[in-house]
Each structure stands twice: as C-alpha cells, then as structure tokens.
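Recall from the previous lesson that a structure prediction takes nothing but the amino acid sequence as input. Here we apply that procedure to Putative D-aminoacylase from Actinacidiphila reveromycinica. The sequence below is the only information supplied.
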Amino acid sequence: MAVLELVVRGARVVDGSGGRAYRADVGVDGGRITEIRRERDGGPRPGARRVVDADGLVLAPGFIDMHAHSDLALLEDPAHEAKAAQGVTLEVLGQDGLSYAPVDDLTLKELRTQIAGWNGPGADAEFTWRGVGGYLDRLDRGIAVNAAYLVPQGTVRALVMGWTDRPATPRELDRMKEEVARGLAEGAVGMSSGLTYTPGMYASDAELAELCRVVAAHDGYYCPHHRSYGAGALEAYAEMIALARESGCALHLAHATMNFDENTGRAPELLALLDRALDAGVDVTLDTYPYTPGCTTLVALLPSWAAEGGPEATLARLRDDSAAEAVRRALEVEGSDGCHGVPVDWSTIEISGVASPALSSRVGTRVDGWPTARRLLLADRLGTTILQHVGDEANVRTIMRHRAHTAGSDGILRGAKPHPRAYGTFPEYLGRYVRELGVLTLEECVAHLSGRPAARLRLPDRGLVRAGYRADLVLFDPETVAAGATFDHPRTAPTGIPHVLVDGRFVMADGRRTGVLAGRSVRRSPARAGRGA
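The prediction returns the following tokens.
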C-alpha cells in the first residue's frame, strides 16, 4: 500500500453536499484527496508520513467566501490570517463593481481614492498590473488562500467613459464589452456591479444587459450589488432577476439583505420572488453575512450626482456651501440613491475607520449630523469607513435558510474598528446559527459554505470531500467553534478551528498560522482553467 503525504484519521466527515455526516479516514497526496475509507468499509487503514487524529473533529471542504474585499489585503499581507483562521480557502474578489483591474494610470489613481475606505490607499501593493490577467498573475506569487476575481463593471465604465452620468455611446458600449470579454478570457469568473456606487450606478438596464450577454457567453455569472437595499429593495431584486432572464446570464445576488425599517420582517417576500424565478428556470443564487449591521464608506451615502466627475469633483462639491446644502437635503430629506432611497438616520452611522491618523479619535463614535459628516469627508479625503446599524435579525435568519443561499463576509479588513464579519463570518454561522440557535443543521450549513458556492463558481474539483478533489479542507470542533470577533473587539481570532489546508498544505495547524502561502488564483476560461498559470 502506498504511503500518503497525510491521513486525517477518524474524522466526522461533513462533505459539503448536504448529505449525512459519516466517520472516515481521509488520505491526501499531491494536493488532492486520494482516498476516503469510511468506518464501515473495513480493511487496512491508509498509512501516511503525517497523521492527524481527528477524533471529535469535523472534516469539511474549505469554506468559500463569495463576497470578499481582500483585493489589496492579500497583496499587502499575504499571510491573511483574518480569513485563513476562519477556515476560508477561497475568496471571490472584484466585488461591488469597483476594483483595480482593468485600469489605466488615470483610472487607477481615481479608484485608489474612491475605494480607499474599503481597501486603504494600497501604499504597499506595488500596482504593476493593469489588466485582469496581470492582477491574477500577481496573486500567483503566493497568498494564504485561493482567490477568484469578478470583472468590476464600474471600473470598466470608469476606464471607458470616466465618471460621467450619461448613456454610453455605441462605440463606448462596444469597448466596455471588449474589456469585460478580455477580463473573462484572462480568468475572471464573472462580472460584478455596484449599482448604488458611482460610476457603475450610471448604467441603464439596457447597458447592463449587453454586458451580461458577454458574461453568459463566457459561462460566467453576474454579481450585482443592486440599486436599493432599502426603499424599493424588492423592486431592485426583481430588476436584477429580469436582467438575468433577458440576458441569459447566471445571477448571484450580493449580500442579499433586507435592511432598514421599511423592510423589517419582509424576507419571505424576497424568498417568494426568488422561488418564482428558480421555478421558472432562472439560474440565481445569493450570499449573506450572519450579522445585522452593514458596512460601507461614508461617501457611498451621497447622492450619485455628487460623485459625477470622480473623487476630486466630489470633494469640490463638498467644499462649496450651496452644493453641500443640496447634498444634505438629498441625504436627510429626500433619501439619496446612495443611501438606498431612505433618509439617513445619523444615529445609525458609526465610524469604523479613517484614512487620516489625525482623525483616529473619531473611530467608534456615531455621526451626529451632516456638518460632522461633511467635515469628515473633506478631512479624510473620502476615506472614512462606517458601520450602518439598519438590519433586521428575523430577516437574516429567514434568508440564510433558503435553498439558493451561500455565505459571503463582505469583509472590509481596514480601519481601526472594522465590522466583525471580516474576521468572524464563518465560525459565526457554525457556532451561533448551527449549534446555539439551530437555524441550520451542520450538514446544511457546511453545504452553504462550501459545496453550493463551488457549484455557483462551476469549479469541478472543489467544494466537496471527494476522491480526486483539491485538498482544500478545514477541521473544526463542532462543540467549540465560535467567532471571537465582536463589535468591540473585531479582530479577535475564532476558536475551535485547529487545522486548515489549502492544496493539501497546512496554512493553519493547531490553531496557529504556519506561514505557508499555498493559495493561488482560481481561473475559469477556455485558455486557463483551474489554478493559476
């Protein structure tokens, strides 16, 4: 009998399919699962150079974060313990229509300002790429966990049209389609949009449909942050489903929450909408995080017209008293499109991070009105990150039970007091919503965190504990697994997750980060499928 590199012995295997758990020895060699010997099978147990005694532990596929904002964090801190410690072995980047490829020099400069609140300024990122393939090549130098990428539609629009609020000309639309197609051919798994973020929100449904047809032709999926999560949320979801139906493109709804007081208890209406679409043959999935507050940038709340022309134009409007007063009215009276059509309640807005060290004392405080918000936006050059306390727990629990549900942290890792979802989403699901509350069974939950997202990504050898599959695996204690991260202490590591493997190599062992950088880009295209080149 061959001696394997690793055997995980006597584990309770929860295989990511949703099927019942079973006890087995699982052998790993050459980065893949090579043998699964169930307890009932009998016969000799596999031998290995390294044996992990998994008595009392669950062995599951590595978790897939369907909505991550680690685009620069993976480059600036490749060890990436924030996600590795949670059992995450794959993240999907390029979210909400704004990221760093494809770009030219001017677009990159503008984006670094516009989304500094998500990712920081990227001072240590070495922006040597301009296209999607170049960015993925940069990830392939070595990162803790695997990463897939969505072509960001807002970035593409900024590259082709700048930050202007007008319809695309036929020539501009053709160029945007070419950029999306190029990004998909270079390895992106789909396209994202941020339809409450500029400039992506300036696109009409007709423009988006043309881009989605390109995505469908490359067998990718469309991941929109749609036009409203507040007033008009259900209409916004229906708009995206109609877009998927018209274009023939698979649809994955980003952080599919029902927030703000207007939507308290209305999750069943959303799920009924999804069920009708699924029953009619629309390929639709969604992701959520297991928390009520949201997290974004302070500048994102502003009306879209205030951002036309780019970050410097926004700052100029904020300096002008009459323009700033118009912004205030849009926020406080009308309900700006950036705040989902809901008049802002400043008492729900908590500062979670600032770009300027001089403003650090503001972290953890609530915004007490527009004058304070305006001063912060100017002093921090739009780099302020916020928590928005507008969620509904009943909605959170209802949505996570749905048959199309997957998990996404939406984790913004920067700031002195980030949202704990960045460090706690996956153990929070397993500890609170499985063990403590029983909202999901363990088998259901693991399927939501692994097998189901792998199916959405159309990855043929990930997301399940199966012979021949990639050995991206997590071992956790179902009795103790829990998120350590809280709103007061958001960077606390989770408990109960001793071992995490990426490509058969331990990135976490005995609860400690090993320093191994086994992750690479995960690409899906005719030319370069599977792992990075």
